[in-house]
Amino acid sequence: MSKKSVPTQRTQNKPKLGDQIRSIADRLKQETDVQIKATSRILGAAAQISENYDKLVDEVVDMVEEDLNQQLQITQKYFYTADILKQKFKTLREAKAHFQLKVNSWESLAKKLNEPQSESDLRNNRKEKVKQGQKNIEKVNVILDPDVAEVFPNSEVVNAALRSLIIKKNNF
Question: Are 138 and 129 in contact (CB under 8 A)?
Fold first, then answer.
């Protein structure tokens, strides 16, 4: 009898097969729900990253286009033609003196003014000794950008402006 009573007790303590299957199914369902929620969160984050990435790329593209447009406007603003130079200056001699260039025609002056200048050209300003009155002074030829040249048309105006800056600097 004791042999029969042991299996009966084990079956009574052990869950039935149907309950076991239901328990496993519930656990799988819970794990699937967790996986679905996690996947949904990951996909949502990926979508947000993608949207932010697109916005960032659009902002960078807009900034670069804006910079390029500004550069184009500056370049177009200072583009010289022979006709523009003829309107601005009475004679070719006056224009050559203004820009301190040696040319033979209005067209060659316009071409020279429209050539991009390298940094070395700007750094290699010519210096020469000039006798002014009773003293020798050193004259430095500086190439001004066209917009600056409009405000400072000759050396007297440039010197006056620079002297005022020197005075202001020395007073501080």
Answer: yes
Between CA 66 and CA 101 the distance in angstroms is: 34
pLDDT band at 105 (very low <50, low <70, confident <90, very high): very high
Calculate the alpha carbon distances from 82 to 77, 89, 124 in Å. 15, 10, 27
Q: CA–CA separation, 51 vs 95, rounded Å?
A: 56
Q: 4: number of CA atoms within 13 Å, CB side?
A: 1
d(CA 119, CA 111): 19
**Residue 9 main-chain phi, psi, to 5 deg:** -70, -40
The mean pLDDT value for 101-119 works out to 80
Structure confidence at residue 155 as a pLDDT band (50, 70, 90): confident
Question: In sequence order, what are the residues at sequence separation of 6 or more whose Cβ sits closer than 8 angstroms to the Cβ of residue 80?
Answer: 109, 110, 113, 114, 146
CA distances from 86 to 99, 120, 139, 146 (A): 14, 30, 29, 15
